């Protein structure tokens, strides 16, 4: 069900319409999000003065990337979820290095094209505006536009995040992201521990699997004991190739719509975690409701994504001059936009250390 914090835009990729709606809902969104976002001062119009073209730059970059490969929507969504859950939405997942989150098993298969897109947008944005916008904000905004461009709802993303100084530690990743063979109790517990205790958040956010693919090794448990036509077909498709990729939504794999929930109702969910949502009384009524009513799913998804996006980073932070690296030589660097613009430089050298 759509709330006052969100507006549903079906199918339209027209930037003007999106921007008009963004402005129209911005005030309501900020008021509703105030309590949770206040802790780190997020606001929909955070960059309105310092980088007025931000939305246009992000929108056109994501649209161009989708023109090359529509899968980038799925790539961004998964990266965003895997960034936010372990220690908040702070772009920690983008950091390279020996302790990079990208090397952890939970993050195997993240789309390199989508990771590169974030850094490429950062470069464009910093050249235009100076180092004012964090990689974390660019990831949040790009993910929102990617959903809308794939046919999904408009998501009014609050902004103002800082980038982490370190990757999330292994234990945080391991204790946060559920395994694809987890039961519904585990899913509910993991989401509740992140402040997403409303089952509607879990079910709606799982609806991100309306786009994208899973490798056969991630649903091995289902196909090792096939027990109906669908699981026999999955088993036949995978054979012995654990890396073969299967669409998560078997009806409309590249469109952001509610058909994933129709899949689940038809017992054609690919992951154990997905199908489990349709088999448990605490969540099945939501699966059925979203399958019957796309507007309800869209409204709930947009609202739950805003909640997810407000998960706080570890504290401190910086505006990275390269999304894959922490800035050289400093903690809590603060950007001086005037210096950056004057120097025409988007790198960390344009940042000044704050107290
Ligand atoms: C509820 C718990 C969840 C589990 C257990 C889970 C697990 C998985 C697994 C195993 C894959 C396949 C990865 C691969 O084989 O490469 C996958 C893909 C994906 N996940 Fe999830 N996921 C969950 C929730 C979410 C959420 C909340 C989102 C976003 C809001 C999300 C977005 C995606 C997307 C879009 C893909 C496709 C990625 C691509 O094609 O590149 N997932 N997920």
TrEMBL record:
The keyword Heme appears for this protein: yes
Domain Plant heme peroxidase family profile residue range list: 41-327
Cofactor note: Binds 1 heme b (iron(II)-protoporphyrin IX) group per subunit. Binds 2 calcium ions per subunit.
Swiss-Prot/TrEMBL cofactor(s): heme b; Ca(2+)
Chief localisation class: secreted
Keyword terms, alphabetized: Calcium, Disulfide bond, Glycoprotein, Heme, Hydrogen peroxide, Iron, Membrane, Metal-binding, Oxidoreductase, Peroxidase, Pyrrolidone carboxylic acid, Secreted, Transmembrane, Transmembrane helix
Example GO biological process: hydrogen peroxide catabolic process
Active site feature: 82 (proton acceptor)
Binding site for substrate: 178
Residues the entry annotates as binding Ca(2+) 2: 210, 249, 252, 257
Domain of life: Eukaryota
Similarity comment text for this entry: Belongs to the peroxidase family. Ascorbate peroxidase subfamily. Belongs to the peroxidase family. Classical plant (class III) peroxidase subfamily.
Protein name: Peroxidase
Species, as recorded: Panicum hallii var. hallii
